[in-house]
Amino acid sequence: MGKLLYLTLVLLFFFPILAFSQWEGAEISRLSYDSCDNGIVNLMEIDENDKIYLIYWQNPKPYTTNVTEFLLTKEKGSDWSAPVEIGNPAFKVTLYCPHLWGIDVKNELIHCIYACGDTLYYTNDTMNWEVIKIDSSAGYATGDNLFSDSLGNVHFSWNYEYFQSGYKYYRVMYMTNATGQWTKQQVSPEIFIGYGSSAISRMAVEKGGRAHIFYYTPDFLYHIVNDTLGGTNWAKDSLSYPFYCWDEVGDFRIGRDNSLHILFIGSDVLSPILDQDFSLWYYYRDSSSTQWNPPEQITDIGRGWWLFLDNQGDPHVNWNNLSQLGASFYANKKKGFWESTQLLDNPYATHWIRFVLDSGGLGYAVFVGTEYAPSRESTEVYYLGPTTGISNPDNPERPLSFELKQNYPNPFNPKTTIPFSLKVQGSRFNEPVHTTLIIYNILGQKVRVLMDEEKVSGDYMVFWDGKDEKGKEVSSGIYFYVLQFNDFKETKKMLLIR
Asked: Which domains does the chain have, with CATH numbers?
């Protein structure tokens, strides 16, 4: 578990957010508190109970090529969990080798494919995340091409690049454990690159296990699908590129009815760089048809990477304008045509937003950004989502919202961190609120007062070193920490093991 390096006060962010029905009342809060460089690995699609899974990496200072990765979850109507380290502790993941994470939400299994020399696989289904070698030639792994089907099988595809006669070529490879052991197939012909790198191939998997893959040749974008779960017969069709110079599939999704949805980025500029060089398009094919509908333009400026389908099968997309730092945009087609809005205007955001929608249509998003301060000493993970405020009986003009998080690490020895947030909205945003944070033992006796002071709106974290008011170390056991703002009180449990 990453350790907190120092105690810091983080200002609550209220960046301009334009209301859309999916994002009504959305606010930004901070999820990581480690003062390291962090990056989002994946925000997993919500399961049937609206549970969210977020994986992010952490690179402590001084910086190294090795990173530690963590999992956070959020149950419907609950706070985010404390971060839990995932992966094999003896097997260090490096930023320079491709690795992909996927979650089988039905069985609560986490899968990782790590491709650097050998292709390795590990999962929390084995004790201590046992690392298994599944291939000896990884090649170049790209995209979020790691999926689980409804039967629990794992599917993985990647581009294998190699040199031949001084030029670079690639093949698209596919691997699955559907037969009980890992089997590999080459699913594309040899494709000429020349120099540089291959374009990202994209994969998605039907619930029954049939895999769909998009890959590129100089002339066409090809779509292939195998006939059965783990089958070796692949049907193929093609799409003509809408642009002459530059084309890429940003994201690919399969609907519940097995309809196909593509987010496509294109440019008529030979070497596109600026946002105005790109435009964003949407392709759709009904499950009962073999013909693709004509492409629909979403925006004529910007680059988009994330496509999401809601329970009704309507598409939602997110894109950024890199020339307008921190500006993130959102659009959906719920009314039969594309409507868009600016989702976030945050000059400190440093990463694309990743988002999902719950069964009720509410939006949840995460991004990475620097602290709202001149000294940008870390990049932290932030959450954009709906919050529920409560009225303040002493002053109805000052609604409160609050969040007491689980301490981490937990269990702990000898120190732990308790994060919480206080949000006072309205005209008296900066007016302080009396706040206490007190530790009690299992008998209800007061052990230590960690905080008893006035606090303004913000995100906070408080250390406890396992000592009582007299500075004496307390014994192992269960303890409770109680946070109180005016008439609001919340209690959580923690375990000290010496």
From this structure: 21-386 (2.130.10.10), 400-496 (2.60.40.2550)
